[in-house]
């Protein structure tokens, strides 16, 4: 066995430190020495190989035939969360050591007294289950606002393998993030996805309306000079009367999952958004299901909302026949 050299010490240190760095700092570190440059390019390659950084069942690689950008930098969370002082500002990405794949369980507690069902094993979702939602399909059929679903949650007696938790296991379909000429990054299916299948949650930070307004103004400014692609969604849940009853703001701009790469389509695209409530959780999660059969390689898209197109908004490249040419913009 040879003696460890100074270069070995550098690359060992680099392994610990470099995965924590955002791209500009990574580039700066890479310029320090040849050993650092080699370590940084290994980190870059591992980041490009999996946008989900080992936190989902399958890697979702970046594929860029357009330009030299190897990946898009953000903080990954498999599930929406409430930003707090403890919210990450940094997360290792591109480590040589690998994590156990699959979503973290249990999910971060949303801080409510736990309510739930006490079904016997395998009986959840049936007529006797307190978490089964008889109204979900009715609300959907009436076309009043966004459809919703109820699932078992942290207060239920059943465990993670319960049938009534199909959106809680993270992303279980194969996906890739493809760079396109006009749209930038876009999420594509990397396998056949069947109609009705759960694809992914639109994960991000749950914001108060006040904070959403503040960030909207900031993002508009940055987006207008091309410095940012905002991914802040405002979902309004309507009562049958048509009056707004609840507003959910999810910001995936800095913290999110693969869904932050899904582009808007004015015709609704191939994904159907559904608000999913888990027993014991205050906030519904926005989940995306296949609206029809999706072929391997197809781009995934959904409608960001029914807001009127903003004449001063960002251009829309969805190419559907009803597209007004600009993205819808929420009045916040
Ligand atoms: Zn259950
Ligand atoms: Zn149950
Ligand atoms: Zn339950």
From TrEMBL:
Keywords, in A-Z order: Chromosome, Metal-binding, Methyltransferase, Nucleus, S-adenosyl-L-methionine, Transferase, Zinc
Annotated gene: LOC123079321
Gene3D superfamilies noted in UniProt: SET domain (2.170.270.10)
Cellular component, GO, one term: nucleus
Domain SET: 173-305
Keyword Nucleus: yes
Xref: Pfam families: SET
Cellular compartment(s): Chromosome; Nucleus
GO molecular function (one): double-stranded DNA binding
Coiled-coil regions, chain positions: none
PANTHER family the record matches: HISTONE-LYSINE N-METHYLTRANSFERASE SET-23 (PTHR46223:SF3), HISTONE-LYSINE N-METHYLTRANSFERASE SUV39H (PTHR46223)
SMART domains: AWS, SET
Example of a GO biological process term: methylation
Name listed for the protein in its UniProt record: SET domain-containing protein
């Amino acid at each position: 066995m040879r003696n460890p050299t100074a270069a070995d010490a550098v690359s060992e240190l680099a392994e610990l430190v470099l995965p924590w760095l955002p791209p500009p700092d990574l580039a700066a570190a890479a310029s320090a020495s040849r050993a650092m440059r080699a370590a940084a390019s290994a980190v870059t390659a591992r980041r490009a190989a999996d946008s989900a950084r080992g936190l989902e069942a399958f890697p979702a690689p970046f594929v860029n035939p357009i330009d030299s950008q190897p990946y898009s930098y953000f903080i990954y969370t498999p599930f929406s969360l409430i930003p707090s002082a403890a919210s990450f500002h940094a997360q290792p990405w591109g480590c040589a050591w690998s994590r156990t794949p699959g979503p973290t369980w249990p999910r971060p507690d949303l801080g409510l007294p736990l309510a739930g069902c006490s079904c016997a094993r395998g009986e959840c979702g049936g007529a006797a289950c307190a978490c089964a939602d008889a109204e979900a399909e009715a609300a959907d059929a009436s076309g009043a606002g966004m459809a919703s679903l109820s699932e078992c949650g942290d207060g239920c007696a059943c465990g993670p393998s319960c049938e009534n938790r199909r959106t809680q296991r993270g992303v279980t379909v194969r996906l890739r993030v493809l760079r396109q000429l006009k749209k930038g990054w876009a999420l594509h299916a990397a396998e056949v996805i069947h109609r009705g299948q759960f694809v992914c949650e639109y994960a991000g930070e749950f914001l108060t309306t006040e904070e959403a307004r503040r960030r909207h103004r900031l993002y508009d400014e940055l987006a207008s000079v091309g410095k940012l692609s905002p991914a802040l969604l405002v979902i309004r849940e309507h009562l049958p009367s048509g009056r707004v009853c609840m507003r959910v703001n999810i910001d995936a701009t800095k913290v999110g999952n693969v869904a932050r790469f899904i582009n808007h389509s004015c015709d609704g695209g191939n994904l159907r958004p559904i608000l999913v409530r888990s027993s014991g959780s205050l906030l519904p999660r926005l989940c995306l299901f296949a609206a029809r059969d999706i072929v391997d390689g197809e781009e995934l898209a959904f409608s960001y909302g029914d807001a009127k197109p903003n004449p001063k908004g960002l251009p829309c490249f969805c190419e559907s026949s009803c597209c007004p040419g600009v993205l819808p913009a929420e009045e916040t």
